[in-house]
Amino acid sequence: MSIYQAELRVPQHLTSFFATQRFITGACESLGVAEKIRLDVELAVEEGLLQLFASAKPGEMGEDVRVRIVFDFDALHITVLAPGRPFDFHRLPTFRPEDVSSGILEGLGTFLIRRLMDSIQWRYVEKEGQELTMTKHLPSPIADTESACFVATSSAPIPVGALSYRTVRTEEDAFAVAACAFDIYRYAYKDVIYYPLELLAWNLSGQMRSWIAVDEAGTVFGHYAIIRKHPGDSTAEMGAAFVRPECRGGGVFQALSRCAHDDAARCGLSSLYSLSVTNHVATQKISEREGRRTVGLRLASSPAVFVEGATPGERVTTALNYKQCIPRTPRTLFLPERYREMILTSYGWLDMSPSEDLSGTAEPGEDLVTTTRDLTWNRAVLGARGGATARHKMAAYTELLLEQGVACAVLSIDLEDPGAPLLAEEAARLGFVYSGIFPESTKDGHDALQMQLLNGITLDETKILLHQNSAKAILAFVKSEAPHLFTETKK
Given 31, 387, 406, 482, which residue has the most CB atoms within 10 angstroms? Predict the structure, then answer.
């Protein structure tokens, strides 16, 4: 989903270089794009227009050039279409840096565009002209001009009447939930919330149980849900929690939490987990009160859509909280030596005592590596188990994600597969660091070690507010493993 787009028509004239550059630069500044990226784009636009103008023949210069600019949350796309006769861009000269000393600069413009932008594509559009498309990935998502940050409330608070607490039942309820989310976060929250018919279908199927605080007029003031990845799953997330600002501090969230947790107990779920943004200490306290212990930290895992006053592009850390509701049969795990003590400590927080295979004789199971890219929040989720082939695939996927400019990636390694220790070592070599454990989280219900990769992000520890002692211990461990991820604290 684009957050800003525009189309310009400019004549093939020197003035158009500067006019187009200034327009794009102004849009970048308004959207909070970093200066380094703005300068790269400005030079690439100049060189691209120059190449297109140079390919035109006399008599073709009278027609306007069309420039289309599209800002997505995580990328800027610029498409330039210049009218003219067919031209084979494959014949553009190739610049070689070693020829500079000889004064040979042919192809320098194309060379610069390729270095400055993440991808470029030349093509001839039949009967229209030559087209150049350039893409620049952004290191973190950006906000739109209508909201200086993603957190945006209505101009006037909605009067709060008598509230009742119940599940979503009708299409009208689902639309009211979407309206509530929009009033608080615009379109920056979880996608399913903004699709009322899909939200209702999820609730009717049992994949989701949405609890709402609603007044007599049908206005939703808060939402909290039990969410399964698939209908019938025995593990579910307590999440999608939001409350209108005019109700915060009035006990609405606590009441929704109580309703949802009582409902979860009635559903007979084997385990529950939640993700708490670390600037909301209250939600971490509620997780602890409900018996969910923090066993993982996902550093800079999402845009700071929940943080009032956050700057465009800022990201926030979330805590993974877990509760085993029904006792389970013992599991045998294959623990990586570098994380063995931390993993066993984490299971201790959950009052679990898994057995450990120390024989070293078991063979890895089937090689399997999966990856899912979340374009809206510019992150990726990977899963891995198996042997040498899985390690090779994991390295290839990681390299591709970094090239695509993903801000962060979370990797889940199957701890019940004998290949886990070597997969963890390969992940560490690739730059992944410890994130935590996530019991029963793989597709077949196995326990997972989670590791995380940050792409060019440095963390300010003072903005990571933690409540549970287990969360603080995990952060201390990550800092000892990867101090380079954190800014130095001035004393």
Answer: 406
Q: Strand order of the sheet with strand 208-214?
A: 164-167, 208-214, 220-227, 235-243, 271-277, 315-324, 293-303, 433-438, 448-454, 408-414, 379-385, 368-374
| CA-closest candidate to residue 16, choices 66, 58, 84 | 66
C-alpha triplet 69, 74, 75: angle, nearest 5°: 35
Sheet with 75-82, side-by-side order of all strands:
2-10, 65-72, 75-82, 129-137, 119-125
- Note the pTM of the prediction, 2 decimals: 0.65
Contact 376, 191 (CB under 8 A): yes
Encoding tokens for residue 75? 């990328």
- Residues 408/299, Cβ–Cβ less than 8 Å: yes
d(CA 269, CA 266) in angstroms, rounded, equals 8
Residue the block writes with tokens 């190739």: 94
Q: How far apart are CA 205 and CA 240, in angstroms?
A: 17
Q: Considering only CA atoms, which of 136, 118, 186, 141 is closest in space to residue 32? A: 141
Task: Tally the C-alpha atoms within 13 A of residue 123's C-alpha that lie toward its C-beta.
Answer: 7
Q: Are strands 379-385 and 408-414 parallel, antiparallel or unpaired?
A: parallel
| C-alpha to C-alpha distance for 160 and 222, rounded to whole angstroms | 11
Give the DSSP per-residue string, 99-168. GGGGT--TTHHHHHHHHHSSEEEEEEETTTEEEEEEEEE-SS----TT-SSS----SSPPPP---EEEE-
Closest CA to 159 of 251, 246, 250: 246
Phi-psi region of 344 (alpha: psi -120 to 50; beta: other; left: phi over 0): alpha
Rounded distance between C-alpha atoms, residue 122 and residue 136, angstroms:
15
Using CA atoms, how far apart are residues 419 and 390, in angstroms rounded to an integer? 9
CA angle 124, 129, 134 (to 5 degrees): 65
CB 455 within 8 A of CB 405: yes
